[in-house]
């Protein structure tokens, strides 16, 4: 059951700070206790050095931070956020993401956030872009810039979760276009769920080709 204003989304207990959305006790249960590679976010023997996969074939971004795998109750919150019109969950989920970021060491401070754009029709059907709402919520706590139109989607693409990893990469080829300059800036791509990483990889390559100093990926869920 979902909360009314001022109650924790998970346990329904009153919140000292309603904007948090999730109480401190429930928040602790949402974070991954698994050791993950700092670059790809997948299971690894060390959280301090890239895994064997990244040493052989590194992703185009430099660091990835995730709250957890796509597992309940976090996955249920993300699903309600995206598909049940619960845009008010953006602040609570963004706070969880910020807490996950602050648990990491050695991350360059972001100068600009990037949201993953939706195709116009999909945006219209959903009523909002979940990545855009997360970015807007994060800028309330972070001293960095965010412009929703930095990157736009210039053609429609098939829904990613219906495709294989190879077809996901093909599906997104040349699907995005840079609209604003970012030369020499430390960028962070914010997304809700990263599965194969095809979407954030395509955007990362676009940012780096156009002079970004570094690219991080921050996501709520990294599917394993």
From TrEMBL:
Organism from which the protein derives: Kluyvera cryocrescens
Family: Belongs to the ComF/GntX family.
Signal peptide coordinates: none
Domain of life: Bacteria
Protein name stated in the entry: DNA utilization protein GntX
Pfam families: Pribosyltran
Residue span, Phosphoribosyltransferase domain: 177-222
NCBIfam families linked: PRK11595.1 (NF008616)
